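Hi Prof. W.,

I finally got the Ribosome-recycling factor prediction working! I wasn't sure whether to trim anything, so I left the full sequence exactly as given:
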Amino acid sequence: MNVSKTEQDMRKAIEATAGNFATIRTGRASTSLLDRINVEYYGQPTPLKTLATITTPDASTVLIQPYDPSSLRLIEKTILESDLGLPPSNDGKTIRLNIPPLTAERRKDLVKVLRNLAEEGRVAVRNIRRHAIDEVRKEEKDAKVSEDEARRLQDEVQKLTDKSIQQIEKLFEAKEKEITTV
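And this is what came out:
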């Protein structure tokens, strides 16, 4: 049983959760809003950031400048179909996304989405824990480790799990505060 691998897997789960949190808009323009957007470009789902320069000229605008002008319509269509809820405005060369101030209702909805993402992160950490503990039990059954050593490893995995879930909770609280702050 390798505890460091379990710790590494849990760290990856936390990073993935933090990445998901970054894609939730908070009323301020951010290029990370578009990180999850994949455009169907020449039959391949392609990340938007590889097809265009994405900038934030001011606090409420995201500017998308495609490298290939012919992809402008595809990008616009993809953004419209996405769950961003932001209508793109196309001027023929660039696409602008105006980030409106969040309404109280939209803030509540975003907190719900955030809560679900946090729960997904916690579930991922728990799955890693379950896998690690199963591995310890198997090693104990196969007499590779003693009962005391197995108990110690399980306790260590549980401590890692608690620490990881606590980190996800801190990330959630920080992002929730960011969303709910007017």
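Residues 28-98 form a domain with the Gyrase A; domain 2 fold (CATH 3.30.1360.40). Does that look reasonable to you?

Thanks,
D.
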